[in-house]
Amino acid sequence: MNGVIMKSSSDKMHIAFLLPDQGAYGGARQYMCTMLQSLPPEVHATIIIPDGPLERVLSGFTDDCLIYPSPRRNPLKAVAALCGIIRKIREIDCLHIRLAYELIPLVRLLAPQIPVVLGVHGFNTGGAVYYFQAAFVGRAADKVITVSNSEADRLLRFGLPEGKIVRIYNGIKDPLENPLRPIDKPFEGITIGTSARLEPEKDLSLLLEAVANVARQTRVRLIIAGEGSLRESLEKQASSLGINACFLGFVPDIARRMSSWDIFCLPSYREPFGFSIAEAMANGLPVVAARAGGPQEIVDDGHTGLMFQPGDKDALAGALLSLCRDRERRASMGNAGREKYERCFCAEAMVNATLDVFREAACRRGLRKSDA
What we know:
With 372 residues, the chain is an alpha/beta fold. It has 13 helices and 13 strands. Helix content is 38%, strand content 17%. A seven-stranded parallel sheet has the order 3-2-1-4-5-6-7. The longest helix is centred in the C-terminal third of the chain and has 19 residues, at 327-345. It is elongated.
């Protein structure tokens, strides 16, 4: 794109989405893919993304991409490029900065009139430093969107005014509208599946140990979809435990391939939201998850799934075994989870709520007229 992006007409809204250098996996990718596929025709989206894996994933959803150099390779070059981009988009209706709160001061300096909405989603470690900095810098945003109440509570504890915060659950496209053929082989037994980055906070080592316990009492296999730094060590652990485990690697549209699973499990000891839980519920699967942030809001313990304390291998194995042995309970929880997905986690609910926040921010700055 060349030249200055001009302000949209009153019946057309122009939003720019700015994403950090997070790679091709994780919540930023899932969020942006869903958003781009679900925006109504009257909304035009520009995406601002670093070159690299994320660019290759998202560029297929829109031809309106502004690319900046990866800050990991050349921070100064990245900042210089972002300065040019910010000047180029200064007439849009709203800028949504996802995760990269450190860019808000740059936007305020170069284009103070742009409404800015920050999206917070426990980036990387999700530790105290992240939330302190996000809360401090987030004061300069018009609104701050969090993906769960637990995320909002962390920001409040670090001083972000409550009036700045809006909680909007992440949404996903309905996987049952256009399901894909499962890529795992048929199995005469119970299939436990998970979809996660293979990183420490997901605690998949605990899941392997729990499945090993379950496998001593019933026929079970484990499907792991995802990629990450721990793949080799997890594969070695599964082999040493002697369990039937299949590592699929990163699978695009994994939500549309979950139909052959019987139970979904996410043992993370830290989880801002839990995209894969919502995907499993959309597929009508019962969920077993750790009480760790977002999953506590997604899963209704005893109704849509079972919860356990993070790190409790015996409790996890017990929850999995109880569902393996009770087909009717699996079906009942799966149906309840599907109903909750339709109410709370569908793509339309996320998009509509998010656009309302963008419109409010634009109206507050006088860039658009209120619909009221």
